[in-house]
Design a protein that fits this description.
about 240 residues; mainly alpha; Rhomboid-like fold; two-stranded antiparallel ribbon; 9 helices; 2 strands; about 60% helix; globular
């Protein structure tokens, strides 16, 4: 039997090739990692990792997203990109590229917010890097959509997707109780929580958490343009003299 026809291989093998969202996420993550790895001044990248102190006191809000594209080593980025490809490809094909990419950043930024809250509670503002928060969100949603799908745990042991996610979630929770684990398990759990929020909270398949932000921005632009037009009309009226009969 061909490998691609087996049930545990179906999430990983697609006849349509890499979806565009997955492809560009892989390219951007690998490219940024290579630039960072061979950079002579690695400290310059400190402006892009997630530092709770910098975000809360200096307003470095971009770090809520940029930290996802930094990785601590070859093993770190290899695991994250492999999981992104294996579990994210079919999710993008199911949802479409636009919704999937928004979901990816929704989970990643949500995980970053959980890290900020956790660091404030624990008093441990260590920086965080990596796309694991978004990846764990993808895993959680995959388990919700395809709970009985068989995958290979550690590429060796067949296991249902729902049990696999339960196991890694439990491991992340137990490890989060240890402050010195060296892994941001709060980000993992936060990514899973925001993945579930994205999928389940509104009870509609068409939910888009950024649609409200876009709508508010468009309304603001419209109100701003209207205000400028009114100012222009008032100025034009004030420059005109009276009618002469």
């Amino acid at each position: 039997m061909a490998y691609s026809t087996r049930s545990y291989a179906r999430p990983y093998v697609s006849s349509g090739g890499l979806p565009p969202g997955i492809k560009w996420l892989l390219i951007s993550n690998v490219a940024i990692f290579l630039v960072w790895y061979f950079s002579p001044q690695a400290t310059a990248w400190d402006y892009f990792h997630l530092s709770p102190r910098d975000v809360l006191t200096r307003g470095y809000l971009w770090q809520l997203a940029t930290y996802m594209f930094l990785h601590g080593g070859i093993g770190h980025i290899l695991f994250n990109m492999l999981a992104l490809w294996m579990f994210g490809s079919e999710l993008e094909q199911t949802w479409g590229t636009r919704r999937f990419v928004r979901f990816y950043f929704f989970c990643g930024v949500g995980a970053a917010l959980c890290v900020l809250i956790g660091s404030f509670i624990a008093g441990d503002p260590r920086p965080t890097i990596g796309a694991s928060g978004a990846i764990y969100g993808i895993l959680l949603v995959s388990a919700v959509l395809w709970p009985d799908r068989i995958i290979l745990f550690s590429f060796l042991f067949p296991i249902k997707m729902k049990y696999f996610v339960m196991i890694i979630g439990a491991i992340a929770f137990l490890q989060s109780l240890s402050v010195n684990s060296g892994v941001s398990n709060v980000a993992h759990l936060g990514g899973m929580a925001f993945g579930y929020l994205f999928l389940k909270l509104p009870k509609t398949r068409g939910f888009d958490p950024l649609a409200g932000v876009q709508s508010a921005y468009k309304s603001w632009k419209l109100a701003r343009a209207k205000k400028k037009f009114q100012v222009y009309l008032r100025k034009q009226k004030s420059d005109r003299g009276p009618w002469v009969n």
